[in-house]
């Protein structure tokens, strides 16, 4: 059942969220008769509930489709479906490296989006043959001619050459399959060389251990072969070697250009990371495949159980999630205000949302999530350094930032952001980027109506609500993509929030000096609304070091007494009191100030 | 301060509460068990039912109201009778007098018992008063509520302000020994001046007892609904705290001393019946929705007037529910009720407490603790709820 390389075509689909990638994949499964009509379900390849519900792909998927082309020759098509979000661009680039071609799928009504372009660049970088396809041509709002021009301006080529389909109805899909066979080059690889396979995804399975998805480049993979993962050094014997077509089917071998998966009693995905190279343990390849990178969390947040008794359960849940997701990190930390929890690192904001949603859904642990922040590089003043203290410390929890006088300078991560928007909205977009400390690097008209803006922006400025603001200031028309662009020095300060003179670590934030007042005033004002009146005045202050920059007061409660309490009221009032007593147990105490848990959650979850 | 100042001594005997649910109209803020616009027939049946329930409970003896297994003898002496509502004076004077006489006939009511009836100012006339005094009335509680016409209007009270002093004068003339008025403060339309004028008018009417209640938004009342839909303002907590302080100051200056959160009296004129509630005493509750308490058992009657009457007249007990209090619940109640009294509560009745919290409250100037009794300080009184919550173990 192995195919000669000449009749294998490996391809990915590049598309923006909602542009119909999963639907096109569904139609291909039907067109190649891999899935019968009655067995079909929407988004066949998306495995997680979360993926189906959000309509996004989080994990890379692959499916093997035998296809008899118009000329009667049988080909093997491997569709490697990639994640569709900027947080996972490394995963996307690895998946693309497993392909020779890519279908660029563009919504004929929406046009090109930043994310599509970013992924298109990844494809071009990986040397893939790109097949542009317009989707949703059956929609009344479709404007295929203009969108075709956008594609041509980016990709070159001939607008006439662009295929038009409706993935919904299936119209035009056979032509796409034919085009793949014609244009995508067959894989090149050395069947005699030591085995090299590119790991483009790995998924934890409770029964079989980690399922590792691999594209063979050179040599062969066979059941019972002892394989080694070159970056992590993990080695073991292959238990199961299979392809997905579209359900798992065991195979005797995977040769050059073929795509499938193996299991080898791997206990956690950390041992078989995306981008790693699998080789034969006894006859290893001299060099791994290029491009492997350690996963690097960019966004950090504290996760605390609402009920401190859940702490061990939370640890257990995080450990289990990590079996399945090697790209997030966690380490225990304590907060004066929130108790015991974990500082977690994520690839980006969506990744963070996905992890907390999975924690909530799969483990049912109510959580407080602190405001997300980035990792800072803090250079300490030589003169005030403690013995054995390094010159540079990394800070991912604002509460841990050293005192201002000990800091020589602070570097923050910056990104290169690409924003695509209709030309009418260039003004508001530029305004937003400037407020967020962005530096314009490039502005280019793709067509008369569509502009590509390139900004260098501090990552910290876009992890809050940048995307929402961008959407609302362009009536939803702008799209965003970004990639890390190193570290840059900035005038940053830590703003602390004090309740009754005591700092509340969970509310500390590192912000640009010019925005410190705004942040402090906002937080203090919000807390004034959220903190119930106590038996004494509670000053709420925002401070940089010892300098107070904003202040509000929650005035003392002056009256808390039942007006009438006679014989008929006793039972009811006692029960009310008992309920209040229970409620009081759920209060967090900051010094002598009692704060309901909900107020904490509210203060942390509202983002300005 | 001395925690025991103004303590009128231990309660003497038990109490009897009789509920009369009838009202001319329902006041928008009221969540009591009342029935507006009931017809003559229902009133007559209700009076018969109250008399029947009184006779039935009296005959069954204290064992029928005490917790099971409690050793009881016969009835102790009843030191007080209180007819409340609703509006007791919605009943014909003869019926009301009949109930008072019947109570004395079936229960050992002390010859010098305090016998109170609540009345609306507009219902009080010489004839009614004479009938009630003849039946043993010693105390009249007049629902004046306010002396500002727009506040009365807001509260849904139909009477003109001058009716309240007239009612007090009529009661005095009829030989009623003790007269009290009820006031409600802190309605959103009430000004500081309205409140001081109301206090002065109440004092000027010659009462020896005064209850002043902060207007409270009770759930499921027309007032709560009006606030929810934005048609009425909610009372302001800070304004009410200030009014409470003004009341204490002005009434104190007029010789009325505060003895409970919302009650002031001339020396010796405290309500003996209400003291029973605040001190955890025993009382029988008769009538629709009435609550009783006897030695750690609470019970309450059916609330709907007609159902109550039908049940009792068919020979059944009117009890709708009961509760047996364990030690912790009794201590919680004693603390919650006892701290309402200026005299406070004996420590022995409410211990164990959160002693660390008690120390903090004393340090904060909200609580007085002489080792034997706990009492709120003047600063602590408006914050009684918060203090009790912290003292509970």
User: In order across it, which strands form the biggest sheet of chain A?
Assistant: 10-9-14-7-8-13-11-12
Class from secondary-structure proportions of chain B: alpha/beta
Level-2 CATH architecture of the largest domain in chain A: 3-Layer(aba) Sandwich
Q: Supply the CATH class of the largest domain in chain A.
A: Alpha Beta
Which whole number gives the mean pLDDT of chain B? 94
Which blocks of ≥5 consecutive residues of chain A have pLDDT under 50?
none
Number of domains of chain B: 2
Distance between the termini of chain A: 58 Å
| Uncertain regions spanning at least 5 consecutive residues of chain B | 1-10
How would you describe what is shown here?
The complex is a heterodimer of chains A (608) and B (393). By secondary structure, chain A is an alpha+beta fold. Chain A has 5 domains: 5-183, 3-Layer(aba) Sandwich (Rossmann fold); 196-280, Elongation Factor Tu (Ef-tu), domain 3 (Beta Barrel); 299-369, Elongation Factor G (Translational Gtpase), domain 3 (Alpha-Beta Plaits, 2-Layer Sandwich); 376-490, Alpha-Beta Plaits (2-Layer Sandwich); 493-605, Elongation factor 4, C-terminal domain (Alpha-Beta Plaits), CATH 3.30.70. Helix content of chain A is 25%, strand content 33%. Chain A is built from 14 helices and 31 strands. Chain A has an 8-stranded antiparallel β-sheet. In chain A, a hairpin with a 5-residue loop joins strand 2 (61-68) and strand 3. The longest helix of chain A has 18 residues, at 513-530. Chain A is globular. The mean pLDDT of chain A is 88. Chain B has 393 residues and is an alpha/beta fold. Chain B contains 14 helices and 17 strands. In chain B, strands 9-10-8-7-6-5-4-1-11 form a 9-stranded mixed β-sheet, sandwiched between helices. In chain B, strand 4 (78-85), helix 2 and strand 5 (109-119) form a beta-alpha-beta unit. In chain B, 50% of the residues are buried. Mean pLDDT of chain B is 94; it is low at 1-10. The interface between A and B is medium-sized, with 24 and 44 residues.
């Amino acid at each position: 059942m192995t195919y000669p390389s000449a009749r294998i075509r490996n391809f990915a689909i590049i598309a923006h969220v909602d542009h119909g990638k999963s639907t096109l994949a569904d139609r291909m499964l039907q067109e190649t008769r891999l899935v019968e009509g009655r067995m079909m379900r929407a988004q066949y390849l998306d495995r997680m509930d979360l993926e189906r519900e959000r309509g996004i792909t989080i994990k890379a998927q692959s499916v093997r489709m035998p296809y008899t082309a118009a000329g009667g020759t049988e080909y093997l098509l491997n569709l490697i479906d990639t994640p569709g979000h900027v947080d996972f661009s490394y995963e996307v680039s690895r998946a693309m490296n497993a392909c020779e071609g890519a279908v660029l799928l563009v919504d004929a009504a929406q046009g090109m989006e930043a994310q599509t372009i970013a992924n298109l660049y990844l494809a071009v970088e990986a040397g893939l043959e790109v097949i542009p396809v317009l989707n949703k041509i059956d929609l009344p709002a479709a404007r295929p001619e203009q969108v075709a021009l956008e594609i041509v301006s980016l990709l070159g080529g001939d607008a006439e050459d662009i295929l038009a389909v409706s993935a919904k109805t299936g119209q035009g899909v056979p032509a796409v399959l034919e085009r793949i066979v014609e244009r995508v080059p067959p894989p090149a690889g050395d069947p005699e060389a030591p085995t090299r396979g590119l790991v483009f995804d790995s998924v934890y399975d409770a029964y079989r251990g980690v399922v590792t998805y691999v594209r063979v480049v050179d040599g062969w993979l066979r059941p019972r072969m002892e394989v080694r993962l070159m970056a992590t050094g993990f080695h073991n014997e292959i238990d199961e070697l299979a392809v997905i077509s579209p359900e798992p089917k065991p195979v005797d071998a995977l040769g050059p250009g073929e795509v499938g998966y193996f299991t080898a009693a791997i206990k956690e995905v950390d041992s078989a990371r995306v981008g790693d190279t699998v080789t034969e343990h006894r006859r290893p390849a001299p060099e791994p495949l290029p491009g492997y990178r350690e996963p690097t969390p960019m966004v950090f947040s504290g996760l605390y159980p609402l009920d401190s008794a859940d702490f061990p359960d939370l640890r257990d849940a995080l450990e289990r999630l990590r079996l399945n997701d090697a790209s997030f990190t966690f380490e225990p930390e304590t907060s004066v205000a929130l108790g015991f929890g974990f500082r977690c690192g994520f690839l980006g904001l969506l990744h963070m949302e996905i992890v907390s949603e999975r924690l909530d859904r799969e483990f049912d642990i109510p959580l407080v999530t602190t405001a997300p922040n980035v990792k800072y590089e803090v250079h300490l003043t030589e003169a005030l350094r403690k013995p054995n203290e390094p010159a540079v410390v990394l800070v991912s929890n604002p509460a841990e930032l050293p005192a201002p006088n000990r800091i020589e300078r602070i570097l923050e991560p910056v990104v290169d952001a690409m924003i695509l928007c209709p030309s009418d909205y260039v003004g508001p977009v530029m305004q937003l980027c400037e407020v967020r400390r962005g530096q314009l690097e490039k502005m280019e008209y793709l067509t008369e109506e569509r502009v590509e803006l390139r900004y260098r922006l501090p990552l910290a400025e876009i992890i809050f609500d940048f995307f929402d603001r961008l959407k609302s200031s362009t009536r939803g028309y702008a799209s965003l993509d970004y990639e890390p662009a190193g570290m840059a020095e900035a005038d940053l300060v830590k703003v602390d929030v004090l309740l009754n003179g005591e700092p509340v670590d969970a509310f500390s934030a590192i912000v640009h000096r010019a925005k410190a007042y705004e942040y402090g005033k906002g937080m203090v004002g919000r807390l004034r609304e959220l903190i119930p009146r106590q038996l004494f005045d509670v000053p709420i202050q925002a401070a940089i070091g010892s300098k107070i920059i904003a202040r509000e007061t929650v005035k003392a409660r002056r009256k808390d007494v039942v007006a009438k309490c006679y014989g008929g009221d006793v039972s009811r009032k006692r029960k009310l009191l008992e309920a209040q007593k229970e409620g009081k147990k759920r209060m967090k105490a900051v010094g002598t100030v009692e704060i309901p848990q909900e107020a904490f959650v509210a203060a942390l979850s509202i983002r300005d | 301060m001395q925690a025991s100042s103004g303590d009128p001594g231990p309660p003497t005997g038990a109490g009897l509460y009789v509920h009369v649910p009838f009202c001319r109209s329902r006041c928008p803020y009221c969540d009591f068990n009342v029935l507006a616009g009931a017809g003559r027939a229902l009133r007559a049946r209700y009076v018969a039912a109250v008399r029947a329930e009184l006779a039935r409970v009296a005959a069954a003896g204290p064992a029928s109201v005490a917790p099971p297994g409690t050793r009881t003898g016969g009835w102790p002496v009843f030191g007080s009778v209180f007819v409340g509502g609703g509006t007791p004076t919605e009943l014909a004077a003869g019926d009301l007098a009949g109930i008072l006489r019947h109570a004395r006939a079936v229960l050992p009511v002390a010859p010098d018992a305090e016998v109170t009836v609540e009345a609306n100012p507009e219902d009080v006339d010489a004839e009614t008063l004479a009938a009630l005094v003849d039946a043993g009335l010693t105390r009249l509680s007049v629902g004046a509520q306010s002396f500002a016409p727009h506040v009365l209007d807001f509260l849904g009270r139909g009477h003109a302000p001058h009716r309240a002093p007239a009612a007090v004068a009529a009661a005095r003339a009829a030989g009623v020994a003790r007269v009290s008025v009820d006031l409600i403060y802190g309605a959103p339309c009430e000004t500081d001046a309205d409140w001081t004028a109301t206090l002065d008018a109440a004092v000027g009417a010659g009462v020896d007892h005064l209850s002043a209640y902060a207007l409270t938004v009770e759930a499921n009342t027309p007032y709560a609904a009006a606030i929810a839909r934005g048609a009425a303002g909610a009372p302001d907590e800070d304004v009410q705290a200030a009014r409470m302080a003004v009341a204490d100051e002005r009434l104190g200056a007029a010789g009325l001393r505060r003895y409970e959160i919302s009650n002031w009296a001339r020396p010796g004129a405290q309500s003996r019946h209400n003291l029973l509630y605040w001190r955890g005493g025993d009382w029988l509750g008769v009538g629709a929705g009435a609550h009783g308490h006897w030695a750690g058992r609470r019970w309450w009657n059916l609330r709907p007037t007609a159902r109550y009457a039908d049940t009792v007249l068919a020979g059944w007990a009117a009890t709708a529910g009961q509760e047996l209090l364990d030690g912790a619940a009794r201590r919680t109640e004693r603390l919650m009720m006892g701290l309402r009294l200026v005299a406070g509560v004996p420590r022995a009745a409410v211990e164990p407490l959160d002693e660390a919290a008690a120390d903090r409250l004393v340090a904060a100037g909200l609580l007085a603790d002489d080792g034997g009794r706990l009492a709120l300080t003047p600063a602590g009184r408006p914050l009684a709820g918060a203090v009790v919550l912290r003292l509970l173990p």
